[in-house]
Amino acid sequence: MTKIVTALLFLFIFFSGQAVAAPDELVVYSARKEHLVKDLFEKYEKEQGIKITYITGKAPVMLQRILSEKENTAADILLTVDAGNLWHAAQKEILVPVTSPVLDRNIPDHYKDPDNRWFGLSVRARTIVYNTDRVKKEDLSTYEALAGEDWKGRLLLRTSKKVYNQSLVAMLIATLGEDRTQSIVSGWVSNLAAPPYSSDTKVLEAIAAGQGDAAIVNTYYYGRLMKQNPDLPLGIFWADQSDTGVHVNVSGAGIVKYSKNIDEAVRFLEWLSEKDAQKLFADANMEYPVNEAVLPHADVRKWGAFKASTVNLARAGELQARAVRLMDIEGYK
Amino acid sequence: MISSIKYQGGFIVSSGIAAISLSPVLFILASGMNADPDIWSHLKQYVLPGLLKNTAILVAGVVSVTAALGISLAWLTSFYEFWGRRLFEKWLIFPLAIPTYVMAFIYTGLLDYSGPVQTAVREYAPDLAGLFPEIRSGGGAIMVISLAIFPYVFLMASSGFRSMGRSMVEASQSLGGGRMFTLFRVTLPMARPWIFGGLILVFMETLADFGAVSVFNYDTFTTGIYKAWYGLFSVNAAAQLASILVVMVLVIVAAESWLRRKQKFFNRGGHQPVSRKRLNGTGHFLASAFCSTVLLVSFVIPAVQLLIWTAKAFAVEFGAHYIRLVANTFFLGLMGTAVTLAVAVSLSYSGRRRADLKTGIAAKLSLSGYALPGTVLAVGIIHVVAWLDSRVTGTMDMLGIQLQGALLQGSLILLPLCYMIRFLTVGYNPVSSHMTRLTPSIDEAARLMKVTGPALLSKIHLPLIRKGMVTGGILVLVEIFKEMPVTLMLRPFGWDTLAVKIFELTSEGEWERAALPAVTLVLAGMIPVGFLTFIGRSKKQHVPEG
Lengths: 333, 546
Prior knowledge:
The complex is a heterodimer of chains A (333) and B (546).
Chain A: H1 2-16, E1 25-30, H2 34-48, E2 51-56, H3 59-69, E3 77-81, H4 83-91, E4 95-96, H5 101-106, E5 119-131, E6 155-156, H6 163-176, H7 178-191, H8 200-209, E7 214-218, H9 219-228, E8 234-237, E9 247-256, H10 262-273, H11 275-283, E10 288-289, H12 298-301, H13 314-318, H14 320-329
Parallel strand pairs in A: 1-2, 1-3, 6-7
Antiparallel strand pairs in A: 3-9, 4-9, 5-7, 5-8, 5-9, 5-10
Helix pairs in contact in A: 6-7, 6-14
Chain B: H1 4-33, H2 37-79, E1 80-81, H3 85-91, H4 100-111, H5 116-124, H6 126-129, H7 138-163, H8 166-174, H9 179-190, H10 192-208, H11 211-216, H12 221-231, H13 235-259, E2 277-278, H14 281-317, H15 321-353, H16 357-366, H17 374-398, H18 414-437, H19 440-448, H20 453-464, H21 466-482, H22 485-490, H23 498-506, H24 511-535
Parallel strand pairs in B: 1-2
Helix pairs in contact in B: 1-13, 1-15, 1-16, 1-17, 2-3, 2-7, 2-10, 4-7, 7-10, 8-9, 10-13, 10-18, 12-13, 14-24, 15-18, 15-21, 18-21, 21-24, 23-24
């Protein structure tokens, strides 16, 4: 018994020593999942000779971790999904403003922080998907229309706890105002064919199985599912084309203000915004590159071109708490 | 006789442990004090009532279902002989190796509208399709969580029934008590510390569950905490909700120990195993059928589903990194178990040496970590550690020593400590229920032989409670294997575990790809759980007569 304890202790001390980061490497706190960033980071290591260490987790948790670690944090870069999360990180003053002509050139204004504290790196469109056997494309128009009487018992949604829906509702508040948004959410809830699902994929499967006729999802979930089952009766519809455009969101990154390696971190972000990395970054998850000079994957292009909302995504962060309250009040679970 | 000064040790040890366990909770309570009143009034008006109702339904449901399943299965396999008994006795523990969130995504996958079962019903019996209950509901959540954790009750009840020995049962029967009378008036009351131990685990696990209820999108207190934090971005409001949770747990735990404050559970009757009655006819068939059904739905079906998914996604997912994941999982599990068990033994030993109120309270306080959602606990710990780190760096700065970054943050030392805080109660319950069984006369006898102090513990007590330690250790190990939020949040770089991998894949809706790490995790958990079934079988009993 004593021997086992000694051996364990020894191992323990040995492994503990590995936790400290070397100075010529970048540390990324990533809320984007490992299988979506691994290849990208390895490519950078190979091309630039800078080691990238990363840890993955949920965005608010990563943010809280940096907040409590303060200047002791190992993080150089916070990489996360959803503009709301990035906005909050900026709001909590843990991100440093970056002046970079490369980033300015590669990333459109509405996909980055007005004060240059965070930058979108891939674009994700959240739009309407419908059952092609049961719905005619002409019957679809806007997010708002799905709240109408004729959709009673035909709509499926993912949970309001998912940040994607919170951002969608926040952006509706930004463009339509709080009152109209509230009646939209109320209409959605009363049109539901089943209680909200916990994942976009489940929503899509339920639409394909005929539990409901239309839903609001991120396009890459549609792409993934169709890759597995090309015969599913599912179609993509680009919402709000005659006015504001499809609701889009980003995954993006900012540089942590406690970073000891800010110059290198900037170079990394710049590299991420350039052609090769953009291709890899977006294609890994069937998303859209934020750099407009880069084409999306061929499979993604098949879904057709669309007009995207150009309201600055910082609004999604500002209005997120209001969106959540509004959904609570309307009983959107 | 031992002087009263020596007795103080018990209180010092248990309050020390309580201080460590409670430090994250205290930080949470402190930040809960200054919650944004605006957010709080919103939560109170629109969110809390629903959460309270849902949580009460869920907890009451899971506790009743697991009690019914666990006790009846333990009773059947302990006192009766029927076809497959020996197999059920072993295999009914294996559902413990399946994390509740995995059980949840398997069953929603199977029973949802788009799943194979309902699809088949719509195709072959369209008339019945409308009758299918919604799986993503309170009932569904109760069913799935119960299937994943009833083995706690089964395991504890079995061990209570068995260690009771033949004499009690025979005494009752020789006095004319029928089997039913014996069950309700002798067997169950005697096994109560065990059964309560199991049910308290179930209660706390259900309160803290986040993974499974999220899959169902069933809102409970835990999901409310996350909502306040993730959606409303108020860590303070989240902390305030968490403190309500802590208070609820303390009340329940206190009530439970008050209920059995005067009871002593010494067994003076020797420990021959109970002889099993052979069932025949209908009874035999029913017993076998009941056990088979439970085993089928709680283990066989989920395991088969995971294997099918694994077969589909194996080529994409498998790689050398899996070996690293498995090694990490085992290493962290063993470290955490060692720490937890050491603390559990110290705690129950101090409680035995000094059975007064304040020591008892300190011990109960030490156990509250299990009811806190992992992420909330982890945030508390990060605060404590950051605070300690800034003290250390501050002091070093004053001494003119420049430290490279943080000392404790991101260090591997943190995780086993967190696991201890989180799972202490899991290890403590079996250890202390064995400790409770040791009669004071053992100590007196030992003292007469001049065996005292540490020697008393290591030579006399530890061997006697070995079974409890093994049971506790294994349960803790398996819990750590399955643990996700604390590991996710506090692991140092490169310390991904199987549970972390499952989280990453399932949160993207990639159930099939998550099946490989899930199967690996279940297999890893089955090794120690399987080991549990062998302890109960050693015929030799070491407890001397009182």
